[in-house]
Amino acid sequence: MKRRPYLVDLLVLAWLVAVVVAVLVSGSSWLILHLAALGVISQAILYWAEHFTYTLNRVPIRDKALRWQQIKTGSWAILATLVLAGVVHSLPWPTALGATGLAILAAWQAWELTRVRRRSLMGRFPIVVRYYATAALLLPWGLAQGTWLAIGGQPKAPLWWQASLQHGMDESLRLGHSLTNILGWVAFTVLGTLLTFWPTMLRAQMDPKSTQHTISAWWWLLGGILVINVGAYTTRAVLLAGLAIYAIGLIWWGYGLVAPLRAKTPSEFAPLSALISLVWFALGYLYLVWTLATDTQALSLQYPRLGLVWGLGFGAQLVWAALSYLLPTTRSRGPAMAKEMLAIVNAAGVFRLTVWNLSLAALVAIWLGALAVSPWWFLAPLLGVGAANLTALGAVLWKGKA
Predict the structure, then answer these.
(1) Residue 128 has what pLDDT?
(2) What's the predicted TM-score (pTM) here?
(3) Residues 6+ apart with CB under 8 A from 35
(4) Are residues 259 and 221 in the same domain?
(5) Residue from 129, 159, 146 nearest 51 by CA
(6) Do 1 and 21 lie in a common domain?
(7) 146 and 226 both lie in a single domain
(8) 36: domain range?
(9) Which residue among 264, 281, 309 closes a domain?
(10) Cα torsion at 184, 67, 96, 229 (round to 10°)?
């Protein structure tokens, strides 16, 4: 495999810096959440899904493919910035143009990954590519709903539809947009990746049954996301049924995590951060189900809290985990350098994770009304840990380039 360019790493770090700046200077939870989702997480997904597809299928990446990879990476950053600027400044055309471009890149991603898989004669784990392609094909639908919501062109439901529409069209678009993107684009990519990446991070043997469980889970997860979208535009009962179907898929998929975890207790920063991120994902999912089951109309008021749990608890810690493992292994020039890089990202790793998660738990308690103190007492440690993580990753990149 050719040595890959630094563009993707630098862009992901730049998006992370943008999130920190937005927390400090912006009061917009929407902007912070979408900087993390469209920027940090999606920028990483776009590259690493392709990286793992080439690696698992043992297909060498050629110079032409590397150039197209850089074009996609740079285009994503420009188009995502266009969407964010368009929404913040209430400009419909830049928003629509940027979202359309992102949808095209996602479709291109699905086509490219499928093409690589078909070229492979010795590849393993075709289910991983199926997860990646499914995620990429779900994103345009999520983007379309979000764009329609952002530009203020929400249609009124027909009279025959209004009888069963419990949420209101604005709320339906918001539900469809957020759940398709989180449970589709992000979660499908993560679940596919962790089939092989989880035991790799733990340096443990993969459970031989986990591939079959992941294949079976795909059907439940896809069925769940489709029913969720139907439920977003019809009734609460259908929406909750979709979430229940999706949860069955999650539980079935999660079987593959158990054996490697029993074989090797995580002690390094990357697997610990990944494991904790999945716990936060589960907590956010349960909170979503509880909110929908008790009061669907109040869900829009809970979005900042869900964004906090899924953005800082799940998304951020998963990105830290992935980069803390992948950068040392892909940027080093030999085992000795890789060991030095891992030492950098593992330094005070347990302490950083403890401060991050206790601070995040305290913020959740504040927003739930269980703790009556200023959130800045806990935002400050979060920012400090974020800066420490960025510094460690930056040091690894610098060491690899030197």
Answers:
(1) 93
(2) 0.91
(3) 15, 18, 19, 22, 84
(4) yes
(5) 129
(6) yes
(7) yes
(8) 1-124
(9) 264
(10) -10
Task: Please tell me the distance from the alpha carbon of residue 378 to that of residue 277, in angstroms, as a whole number.
Answer: 19
Residue 93 shares a structural domain with residue 48: yes
In terms of domains, do 192 and 232 share one?
A: yes
**Token pair belonging to 96:** 């629509």
Are 383 and 284 in the same domain? yes
244: Cα within 13 Å, side-chain hemisphere: 9
Position 301 scores a pLDDT of 64
161 and 260 together in one domain? yes
Q: Average pLDDT per run of 10 along the chain, which is 402 residues long?
A: 65 88 82 90 91 85 80 93 93 94 96 87 82 97 93 53 56 90 96 94 90 94 96 90 97 92 91 96 92 72 76 90 90 86 92 95 86 84 90 86 66
- Which pLDDT value is given to residue 150? 87
Final residue in a domain of this structure, among 264, 293, 322: 264
Total structural domains within the chain:
3
| Short-list 304, 277, 184, 278, CA closest to 232 | 184
- Find, among 71, 144, 142, 82, the residue nearest to 108 by Cα: 71
140 lies in the same domain as 250 = yes
